[in-house]
Amino acid sequence: MAQNFTDDCFDASHVGQTDLGNIENNFACLKSSFSGTSAPSNPVAGMLWYDTTSNLLKLRNAANNAWLEVYDFANDRTVLKTSHLVDGVLSADTAGRAKMADGYITTAKIGNGQVSGAKLEDGSITGAKISDGTLTGVKLQNVSSGSAIVLAAAATERTGNDSSYTKKKEIQVRRTGTIDVYFELKGEIGVQTYGRIYKNGSPVGTVRSTSNHSEFTGWTETISVTAGDYVQLYCYTRAAVYGYSYRNFRCLIGWDQMNALVTQD
């Protein structure tokens, strides 16, 4: 498309047909927003250019030394950068109306690694900036299994004599991801005792058993969870008359950016 704009289109000494051709060319430039694979050769401040290589509409800056990205035709959206936002522009207005629809900022809107420490002013995310209950477990980064951090522990030693699987301990997790679940069992008088990890009332772990009545036996399993899930320990014994003991029911993760991590002990 036409990109070279002729400023001096009319003069008494010009050939009329040439001037009319230049005027027609200028209209073609304006009609297509100077579209082309490279920038126009004679730009001025405030000039538009449709960059057909990147499929972006650009605007010449006031200093006439750079092109500003305005609209992304490939994705049918405006180009919004941090520098475009006036302080307070994303705050609710005086009537309390929000500037963005609920759920608008999705992972697709933010590239991996884009929100780094350099993007946030020290101390900028204070309690006053976040509405109560906003930062729930589902909003935070997924956790990964491991043994570095105890999310929660129901450690008290207790006894039971159930003859079928019965819920004995329960922890509600507030994060999504994978976690390690640990528990310990001990039987009585050599009778087989069974334990199994459940989630929201359904079995998810391997059946564990022990007939050791002199000391506890422990197991660890990795399971997937969603914030709000209930992780449970169900137990029973082959001979209810003898009973069994259970303790140290714990949910653990490898590490989490929201917590401290011991690097030397």
Keywords:
single chain; 265 residues; mainly beta; Jelly Rolls; 2 domains; five-stranded antiparallel sheet; 1 helix; 14 strands; 31% strand
Overview of the structural elements:
The protein has 265 residues and is mostly beta strands. It has two domains: 1-126, no CATH class; 149-253, Jelly Rolls (Sandwich). It contains one helix and 14 strands. It has one helix spanning 16-31; strands spanning 48-51, 56-60, 67-72, 77-78, 149-154, 158-160, 166-172, 177-186, 193-199, 202-203, 208-210, 217-225, 230-237, 244-253.
Topology:
Blueprint: H1 16-31, E1 48-51, E2 56-60, E3 67-72, E4 77-78, E5 149-154, E6 158-160, E7 166-172, E8 177-186, E9 193-199, E10 202-203, E11 208-210, E12 217-225, E13 230-237, E14 244-253
Antiparallel strand pairs: 1-2, 2-3, 3-4, 5-14, 6-14, 7-13, 8-12, 8-14, 9-10, 9-11, 9-13
**Arithmetic mean of pLDDT:** 83
> Low-confidence parts lasting 5 or more residues at pLDDT below 50?
none
Instruction: Give the SSE order as H and E letters.
Output: HEEEEEEEEEEEEEE
**Tally of individual helices:** 1
> What is the radius of gyration?
33 Å
SSE-based structural type: mainly beta
Distance between the termini: 69 Å
